[in-house]
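This is your field. Have a critical look at both lines of this record:
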Amino acid sequence: MEKEIIAMLLAGGQGSRLYALTQKLAKPAVPFGGKYRIIDFPLSNCINSGIDTVGILTQYQPLVLNEYIGNGQPWDLDRLHGGVHVLPPYQKASGSDWYKGTANAIYQNIAFIERYNPKYVIILSGDQICKQDYSDFLEFHKQKGAEFSVAVMEVPWAEASRFGLMVADENDKITEFQEKPANPKSNLASMGIYIFNWDVLRKYLIEDEEDPESENDFGNNIIPNLLRDGRDMYAYHFSGYWKDVGTISSLWEANMEVLDPKNSGIDLFDEDWKIYSRNSGMTGHKIGSDAVIKNSMITDGCRIDGEVEHSVLFAGVKVAPGAVVKDAVVMGGTVIKPGAVVEHCIIGENAVIGENAKIGVEKEGEDKGVATIGPGVYVGDGATVGSNAMVRENVKDGEEEW
């Protein structure tokens, strides 16, 4: 059962800044890029990097996520020894606890990790869009003789104060850590992806749990404690595509970037680093004789009879004759009826946009934002939804929602 490295994937995030999209859905289960969910990216990275044992720590609204992961077969993680394991909080002899923080979540699963007696543990986030070879990261960790390594990206100095920052010397050894500082000393932003030597991580998790003042968090507690003790800590520079899709605008932007792989850096058509997902089981898409489609992603089961431009359509979307979809992310099962205009927005799963309704209408004098229609919402015939609106409940015929 012994493994050199196993992955622990933090997938319990509520994703509160995605509002209507995550009311009944864990953030890692949010659809992305036409045929994927966010969690497909770290799972695919694992198997492409040769990591075949993954613990997935779930908590908030796990039903859809658990169902989607299943036995791990789409990612070749249905293994007899290893594979994928969903690890929710559970009742123990000492009582029952929710995961109180990122470090506590790993602490509560020490027994799972010890089953495989790994030398290294990689901690991953289940709510980022990133294509990364973790085997390169592990090789860096070994060559440096590190006890802890963190993947970092250079960000613009003007934005550095939004991130946890690593200050490192010319050999990439970390000398200081700043959590969202007002006066940044570095622009090396932590990606929230860590490699630990397991013996070191285990020691610090236990000590952290015994500290009643701790927030049980990697950024606020574990990393500062490693620095305090002078541990060998290194920053691994990552230069590929990485995006935290934690807001409506960033989720919309990342989906739009899928349509321009040459300039955006995210190529879902890359045969050498495939992103795997669960098959929808739907038939092929059908394009009507009068349909117009320009620079768009059209997925399984779609029926297109209207106009679609620069948009991402997930499985089973129907666009009726006379409907216009532009600069939009339309999630699975949504129906857009005749004459409707849908633009610069995200439409949740199984929504219905009524005849001649208008989504994403820009109000005079306001900045253009990303309109959001929640899953299962019905927007009535002739209704209008403004460009910054967040709609969670049905909109009546002819009503305006700003």
Observations:
- The first strand starts at residue 5 and ends at 10.
- The mean pLDDT is 93.
- The domain at 3-262 is CATH 3.90.550.10 (Spore Coat Polysaccharide Biosynthesis Protein SpsA; Chain A).
- The CA atoms of residues 210 and 216 lie 10 Å apart.
